[in-house]
Specification:
This protein has two domains: about 45 residues; about 230 residues, Lipocalin, CATH 2.40.128. It is about 10% helix and about 50% strand. The chain is built from one helix and 13 strands; from the N terminus they run αβββββββββββββ. Strands 1, 2, 3, 4, 5, 6, 7, 8, 9, 10, 11, 12 and 13 form a 13-stranded antiparallel β-sheet that branches. The N terminus is likely disordered.
Amino acid sequence: MTMKHQNRRTHIRSKSCGGTWARRSVALLAATLLFNQHAFAAEMLARAGYAERPLSLTKGTLRIDLAPADFGYMDFGELNDGRSTVSVSDYPGGGPSVYTGAGVSLGVVKDLEVGALLFPIPIHPDFDFGNMEAYVRYQITHGVFQLGAQATVQIPTGGRFGAGLGLPMRIAASDLVRLDTGFEFEFMAEPGQVHLDIPLAIAFDIDDAFFIGPRTGARFPAFNDFQMPLGMFLGGQIADVVELSSSFTFYNFVNTYTDRTVDVRYWDLMFGVAVFLDVY
């Protein structure tokens, strides 16, 4: 685990055995503080389940994103997508495709989170480099109904430029249930299009470590079509600051642009890992 280290030297001037005791006491105190800082992220995850996490990262928390931050706003549409250790998709006539995407997120100050998708890498059928992303999120309200504002930019390292503006929302229905939803307008170049995303994921805590739930939503590509995915997700904390998750989604379950209104030929299977660290 990474931590913020400060190089300090404590000078204790004493020629007696009391000086030795003091030096040992200071060393013990320093070790205790260091251990407590190291364990903070683990304690933060352990003292509350998935359903009780806030909409934004706490100050000083760094999350390594090899999994979606949530299965609503941050795993839906063309933007705010692509974090996974490995993702396998299939569609008619194309065969399976394999993808991995790594990013980081940081709680800069209270209620302010920034993040980026740094390594979006299609692996199969063609090895390539996809579109990078960066976002900033500010949490406006707390409590049962949590509202935020988020701006996202898609950097055209593998395709087209895009920008998103939206309102991520989280409803802490109880200590064991949370809803992730919101609204996002995606402004995409080449050709110029505007999409509307309204995700919905409902998480149920099995205990303080594990969670499961359904996911769906409504998407309006270019305001000309309709898409409603349907899937499930699950996950759990397995070792202090490490969390595993997985999801399976029919992403064109109901749609207006394929040859079937209800279409289960398009699916995505994701496995992910997230690591929570304290950097300050």
